[in-house]
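Morning!

This is the sequence you dropped in the shared folder:
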Amino acid sequence: MDVTTRWNSSLDMLVRYLEQQAAIAAALTSPEIRQNARNIDTLDIFDIYISGRYSGDVYNYLLESTALDPRFQSLPQIDCNQREAVFQRIQKRVQQLQKNQPTDEKSMERKEEASAHCSTHGGEGALEAEGGAESEEEPASKKTALEDLLGDSFSKTEQPSKGIERETELYRREASIPLSCCPLTWWRENSSKYPLLSPLVKEYLSIPATSVPSERVFSTAGDIVTAQRSQLLPENVDMLIFLKKNMTIS
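The structure's back. Tokens below.
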């Protein structure tokens, strides 16, 4: 009954097999069964588990996603060296993400300034306000001779990599939350505590763990649009699918 596009069917199959493994092994080694069969397929350790599916980049990505889940951030299923490697990769991903943020932040700030200016002075001159935002900015102050000479030698600004390491260590010391809790809710409540890690969490934990729900939507559409109802308008099909999928929500 295993279905390739339904991962939960594979999971149910494996759970059931592991549950009945002793009975299956006893049946396969029973003399009464073997006396009438020449070749009986037997299963070894490689057939029982699906470790072959979890390797390479996919396996690393799954480990990183698990580490960013506050329910499982201790990663007890792997050894210490693997655990350290996972968090090292996470820190590198945060650094890569930070490199792309400054430009986006500046553009957002300019848009906010332009919209605020337009709301203050009315709709007229909106284009002028947007185009002249940069010209109204104050000129950058010139560096003094001492600043040119010594540069950042005596600056106490924390390096980005140090901040990422500090946040990662702090996060790893957090107590794991109960399995019944939502990791997205936890990160929303603690995003101010981890301003460097939380943007990466949005990229990882927002990815659906399975394609089953979306594929079930297609199955629902197939049940609605039949040969007898082939003249339904697209907007009506959308509404019927929406009602079907959300009618149980209270």
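Headline: The mean pLDDT is 78.

More detail when I'm at my desk.
O.
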